[in-house]
Amino acid sequence: MAQAERRPEPAVGPRRASPWMDEFWVRRLQSLLGLIPIGAFLIFHLYVNLLATQGPTEYNTLINTLEHMPLLIFIEVFVLYLPILFHAAVGFHIVFTPELNVTRYPYGRNIHFYLQRLTGVIAFIFLAYHVVTLRLIPGLNDTHVTFALVQSQLRQTWILILYLVGAIGTIYHFANGLWSFAIHWGIAVGRRAQRAMAYVSAGVFVVLTLVLVRIVLAFAS
Amino acid sequence: MAKETVRLRVRRQEAPGAPARWEEFELERTPNMNIIFALMQIQRRPVTADGRATTPVFWESNCLEEVCGSCSMVINGKARQACSALVDQLEEPITLEPMHSFPVVRDLAVDRSRMFADLMRLKAWVPIDGTYDLGPGPRQSAEDQAWRYHLSRCMTCGVCVEVCPNYTVDNDFVGAFAINQVRLFNTHPTGALNRNERLDALMGPGGIQECDNAQNCVRACPKEIPLTDSIAAMNRAVNARAFMRWLDR
To answer: Can you tell me the ipTM of this complex?
Structure first.
């Protein structure tokens, strides 16, 4: 009857998101990249910047060392830029597919679902700004990133606000993404395990946010 | 104390794709009345609150005890069954809308045939038909029967996918109920023989990868099925299957 007309049989053969990978692998790879390498780098990056609390000299010495690491551009492109661009490209597709219904169903996980999309967009904009101002421009001008450079930026109120909103958004996106990762990969299956994972991701969010605030204070003081 | 009448706002739509409009009704209040009974009153006397004659409101219902799944609709903004929605427990005017995730047939009735097509796509059954008697299946422990019973209570009502932000009229996501059905049949001793066929379909187009864990489904399910546990369990099964299939090729 009518049902056959409205809902035709799914097309034969997998519909492919790209010529070389099915949708399933695209989504799983996107999820994995969020943790490794992107999330792992986020933790490393925050930890390294904590050195700002030890003073300008120590900070500048380390940045100088990192700038002279071998294969740096290779690492940057393959470990950071390409994974982030892939994660973001699939992410933008994910952001614009759903019909958000958080006002109709204001349940905890649904609010996180909404915030995950919102902070994904915030993180992308913030990272673009962050990479252009502290990597691309100094790189093209062949100048070094120093404590004083970061400090001069963070002393401008609007940049400080951008950094706080952008970086806290990014940290949220990572921490909540950990919870989602545990489910996408079938690690936390039962209700109790999923709730435990939610506490873990809340803990990660709090710790990384405290680290961020400490870094910002080191530059702002 | 009790008011004499009940006020209802109903979203009306003549036919698929026709423009929608709202109509208000003022009905006699009776003890313990549910939404179905209110709609039956309109059917008997199709007159709006301002006295205009109209067509009776069209809806679907069958069992009237929340086991058939046919009277799902959006009541005061939340998807649920009309039979178990008691008027006394609802804020007035009570708004009734068809579910948004399915094409409207007329008024409150929607076409849920996509759900059945997706169950077919995922082979969510135990194949036992053949040309000869296959004999009895393996025994199940009482313990397994007990937890699988919770998965088996699905009535294909559509509420889980109605509340799902990732399930929309124009995409092909299979939805929570279908993923749960795969788990139900993959954990059945005879059904497990076709386990991989179901997993392969579940990671196909519109498959489990489109779930992003908004978890509204488990909150809304009228049968209290542990849908999000089923989704996570199937994520694990599908991932293992995907890696093995790829490594063995």
So the answer is: 0.92
